Amino acid sequence: MDTDACIELDLRLSSGAMNSRAGRSGPILPSLHDLPISPALRALAERAEPRRYRKGVLLIQEGDQGDTLYIVLSGKVRAYSQGDNDREITYGVYGAGEYIGEISLDGGPRSASVMTLEPTVCVVIPRQTLLLHIAQYPEFAFELLSKVIRRARSATLSAKQLALNDVYGRLRALLESLAETRSAEATPAAAASVDSVLQRLTGVNAANGMNGMNGTPGLAAQESPPRRVPRLTHQDMANRLGCSREMVSRLMKDLEHGGYVTVEGADLILHRALPARW
């Protein structure tokens, strides 16, 4: 890790003030109590000093031995792998309240690289500190296990998408996933309807059994309210989908011409359900 690129803040998170010795522009030190995290994770974050990183800092190098957990307090980081031909695949983008690096806590090598996408503040937890914390907060072991299971499930789904779906199918799944995440953030208690779940999993419109874009869209697709998703760059999408940027650009242009997607500021607007086939 580029130690010159990070500035350790000489204060505890609970102090609520930033040491003036930092002396460089960067993210404001967040309050732990403002983050949507569990009490056990909050207590773990309070066991270490926060560190501030610039954009583009490599926090974790794939293949390295590692025994630290990073808790993101502000900013965003990207987990990814890079092939011999410099092609990249993105596993996920994580923001405030998330933690990364848990896979290597068994002493094995890092399974992915992690880089900051913007100025970021993290708390770095060594393995020994984590073990002591689990002894005091046993419930955090279940929280950590749940996180590992969810990410393993996500990795399985990604492998399935890459093996069984074409690029458009993977793009559609990505946009639907982003839309669901945005909807859940806006209305956390809202549950997905049976029709929406069936359509996402099977690619079939539950109202009339139609799929594909040939023919008139079904009633459910026409009445579906517009949904917003964060506007990723085409290169970001390509990195997540395991394809070229040019392919993403062509598909997105087709979706715009078909009236399915429009751009509005920092968002994409999905005006109706995306067709199962293109």
How would you characterize this protein structure?
- With 278 residues, this protein is an alpha+beta fold.
- The chain folds into two domains: 3-157, Jelly Rolls (Sandwich); 165-270, Arc Repressor Mutant, subunit A.
- It has eight helices and twelve strands.
- It has helices spanning 39-45, 127-136, 139-164, 167-186, 194-202, 219-223, 234-241, 245-257, and strands spanning 6-8, 50-53, 58-60, 68-74, 77-82, 88-94, 99-100, 113-116, 120-126, 227-230, 261-264, 267-270.
- The strands form three sheets. A five-stranded antiparallel β-sheet has the order 1-2-9-4-7. A four-stranded antiparallel β-sheet has the order 3-8-5-6.
- Strand 5 and strand 6 form a beta hairpin.
- The longest helix is centred in the middle third of the chain and has 26 residues, at 139-164.
- The radius of gyration is 21 Å and the shape is globular.
- Residues 1-25 and 188-222 have low confidence and may be disordered.
Features of the shown structure:
globular, Jelly Rolls, disordered N terminus, Arc Repressor Mutant, subunit A, RmlC-like_jellyroll, 8 helices, DNA-binding, HTH_CRP, five-stranded antiparallel sheet, 35% helix, DNA binding, DNA-binding transcription factor activity, four-stranded antiparallel sheet, 278 residues, alpha+beta, 2 domains
